[in-house]
Amino acid sequence: MTNRFEAVIFDWAGTTVDYGCFAPVRAFQEAFKEFGIEPTMAETRKPMGMLKHDHINTMLHMNRIARAWEDEHGAAPTDADVDAVYSHFEPKLLSILDGFADPKPGVVDAVAALRETGIKIGSTTGYTDKMMEIVVPKAVENGYAPDFWISPDGTNGFGRPYPYMVFRNLEKLGVTDVRKAAKVGDTLSDIREGKNAGVFTIGVTEGSSQMALSEAEFNALSDADKAKARDAARDAFVNAGADAVIDTMAELPTLLAQLA
Which of 35, 100, 116, 217 has the most CB atoms lying inside 10 A of its own CB? Predict the structure, then answer.
């Protein structure tokens, strides 16, 4: 049987590595604290998947954070303030990234299974090239290496939800038709990126930024609460337009085979 799919394009943190997508969350929260602002977990995660500079800009213009910034600094946040927060965020993230490059459960085996059927492995990210220079070699050491990766630095700064990183993957991997590629991600930005590119788009619930739980936190839940957490993430992905949702990466090869 011939594959319907020629390539699968994965996100990184929260999808293939860094269960729960905690590296950027920690760095965002610490950077904002330097300016007297304490963002909530929900505020920090809402723009997740975007280019990190865009993410900070989005957070700074959330109503509560913008008001808190004005109270703290005497004026509404400006573009210069976005740059200032980013200048604290980037070194914080770079200093911890190498500890957040372990593949999530099922990823290495799923990728091997896809490759056995001739599917190529691409990737997009909200990280910059400088961040990826730390994550990629560490992920390779840990057993995960896509055929191609690109950051928004490779698309003139146009990160998600723009489709351009996906298009670069399709070009590089030689995909003949957008309908023959699948995008897999753990954030609503990933789903929007996939939809905007016209590819088949899949959300993954467990270990996702959308679910926002560490592996230990998730495993400590009762079966009923695990199901509730999965359902909440699933509903968010479906509402964003996902074509399919899986709970773990182990389900991906079977899903794609069924769609062939």
Answer: 100
Is 11 one of the annotated active-site residues of the chain? yes
Which long-range CB contacts under 8 A does 36-42 form with residues at least 24 apart?
Answer: 36/68, 36/72, 36/73, 37/65, 37/68, 37/69, 37/72, 39/65, 41/212
Q: Any idea what the CATH number is for the domain that residue 166 is in?
A: 3.40.50.1000
Q: Which structure tokens are listed for 131?
A: 């961040």
Among 46, 52, 92, 104, the one annotated catalytic = 52
Residue 109 belongs to domain spanning: 7-21+101-259
Tens digit of each residue's pLDDT (9 = 90 or more) over 181-221: 999 999 999 999 999 999 999 999 999 999 999 999 999 99
Q: Which of 11, 54, 102, 186 is catalytic?
A: 11
| Judgement on whether residues 70 and 168 belong to the same structural domain of the protein | no
Peptide bond into 161 cis (omega under 30): yes
Catalytic annotation present for 52: yes
